[in-house]
Amino acid sequence: MASSSNTTTLSNSTNANQSSQISFLFSNPIKLDRSNFLIWRKQVLTSIRGNRLEDFISENQIIPEQHIIQTTVDGSVQKVDNPAYINWRAQDQILLGWLLSSVNEGILNSILNCDNSRDAWRSIEKQFRAQSEAKIMHLRYELNVLRKESMSVEEYCLKVKILADKLACAGSPMSKRDLLMQVLNGLGTGYLDLASIIIANKMSYDDAYALLLTHEA
Hints:
The protein is an alpha+beta fold and 217 residues long. The protein folds into two domains: 29-145, no CATH class; 148-216. It has eight helices and four strands, in the order E-E-H-E-E-H-H-H-H-H-H-H. The chain has helices at residues 37-50, 83-101, 105-111, 117-145, 153-169, 176-185, 192-200, 205-216; strands spanning 5-15, 18-27, 67-71, 77-81.
């Protein structure tokens, strides 16, 4: 699905002599509904990482103090707005607004009371966690029962790769070694000798794939 891009820019002044310019480039993902969480999550995380905003949704995020104590020229002490907090708040609200715009109305109603992007992200993840875990279990089951049988090596490996990519999108990526072992496990008895050679020589996935294609030809 094609997506458009827009630049969100915000200016704010911390005092008469200081201002900061904040600019982010976000793609417009498909809107989150009850059926596309994994795809939505992948698109949203890509944009967040691309803008270096991962800390804003991290559980370990450190939020600056809203006010700081400042000593004036005459020696008196006063509480003033913290420029670091003002800057953090501006960035966070831009991200929060984008997250709110990326979900459908039903899900939007469940996160409207979230005051910052971390709370909104946490709420969405909580709503879909059980669904994600069930999806991962189902994908792993599909991988475990997949066999080459009458398929060509190319067709079989493509099916394995598609399932592995879906697992990665669901937050459960496979290593290249695990991917290779999954392929070998489903080849069947006709490939036992070749599989033994691949394992004994600690071949990479790409080299093993090339060898399997050559063997089939």
